[in-house]
Amino acid sequence: MTELTRLDAAELGRRIASREVSSREVTAACFDRIEAVDGAVRAFLTTDRERALQAADAIDTRIAAGEKLGPLAGVPIAVKDLLCYQGLPTTASSRILEGWMPPYNSTVVERLLDAGLVILGKTNLDEFALGSSTETSAFGPTHNPWALDRIPGGSGGGSAAALASFEAPLAIGTDTGGSIRQPAAVTGTVGVKPTYGAVSRYGIIAVASSLDQAGPCARNVYDTALLHDVIVGRDPRDGTSVELSGTQAVGVADMARRADVKGLRIGVVKELGGEGYQPGVEQRFREAVQVLVQAGAEVVEVSCPHFVHSLATYYLIMPAEVSSNLSRYDGMRYGLRKGGPDATTEQVMRASRGAGFGAEAKRRIILGTYALSAGYYDAYYGSAQKMRTLIARDFAVAYEVCDVLVSPTTPTTAFKLGEKVDDPLAMYMSDLCTIPVNLAGIAAGSVPCGLSPDDGLPVGFQIIAPALQDARVYQVAAALEAALDTQRGHPLLDDAPALGEAR
Ligand code: GLN
Predict the structure, then answer these.
(1) CB 105 within 8 A of CB 33
(2) Is the CB of residue 318 below 6 angstroms from any atom belonging to ligand 1?
(3) Ligand 1 within 6 A of 322 CB?
(4) Single pTM value for the model
(5) Could you give the domains of the chain?
(6) pLDDT tens, residue by residue, 340-377
(7) Which residue among 34, 230, 273, 438 is least packed, with the fewest CB closer than 10 Å?
(8) Does the CB atom of residue 178 touch ligand 1 within 6 A?
(9) What is the rounded end-to-end Cα distance, in angstroms, of the chain?
(10) Which of 311, 409, 308, 326 is nearest to 129 (CA)?
């Protein structure tokens, strides 16, 4: 690994702006790294070398001409393959989109390009972002760079693994129930799910529209904050996107730099932890809370009694929206088409959907269709919506006595590939701590808080803030990061032998 691929995004941006190094050199170094290790990690589904190098050259030319660009201009980034980016296929890791090319860019991609970021390629995910391990991807799983026989989390395992293996300094993820935060936790990286509506969903393949939100991922808090500020903002093409005002409009990077939690009231959520959680995860979480106390925070315990129902609530609402959103893949409008020339519409639909969707997508479609069907709607979907309101109220009550809430991000560290694929419920439990946040539409992030003493794998610390107070997530995350040496023990830092060669 060259020195360049080890550097943080902010530092790369500074060096590129001062012409100490060119964006082309940095971009080429990332592709060399991808070539060396991605055979083992499998973070990327597609790479885009030629176009990326051209984009890097264009940035270098503008800088040489004296133009003042943003702090991340010329810095490479990996994008989850759920976001449309013209010129590359967008697959959502599904066979059903085989051969489909997006006719436009997602707003997030547009914002990246406008800010001068260089897109390296598209990263692997669970099929249609349904999963917690990337194992439901039609193109095979991604491997955790910390231990190649372990999951990198999901659904955004590719983006997290690209960061953890030093293939890219920045990545974009999406989070419907935890798909940014859980992969961040198990790969020792940082990931934030912004407040619902803060980032445009335009051009991002819809999974569960009332829960989906794209967000920034990086190896440290400040880089994540810089990327956050690039992608947020109102977009008239997404009716649910919100206008940021006041402190929100100032941006979160300033807050990430301050890293001060003196007098901040931090609530530890009683229901997110304890029995059933890996002891090493609990231990590191408690230690991190103490670190924040030493830094001057006031810690209180809070109870959110309805959280015990969040998994059940999510797995009614989420599949209901999935069944509706995935109905557009009918074998005619996009991608894969099965059935002979004489096939009827219904035969084409049956054959295409049967062949195109994997088992988990089919499971969610069936669950969702059932929850929405006449006669069951009130009992299932209707009840879940009521419980969703009660969960959001639990947060509101907790925020009367604290500024942020904290919990472990996940109940365990990275489990083994294959360990939970045949047990959907066990897989769903990975998102126990992250799901309530999506149901309430608020902001949360995961930051590393050390390695678990029982298996030596990274543990994630979740920080949850009220709607549109995303800056508080960064404030606490930065304070914790400053107090902990989060990269300690990273197997790839010494780089001997390089990961790809170790296999
Ligand atoms: N793992 C959760 C699920 O399978 C969350 C996925 C996501 O956030 N996209 O639904």
Answers:
(1) no
(2) yes
(3) no
(4) 0.97
(5) 3-308+388-495 (3.90.1300.10)
(6) 889 999 999 999 999 999 999 999 999 999 999 999 99
(7) 273
(8) yes
(9) 16
(10) 326
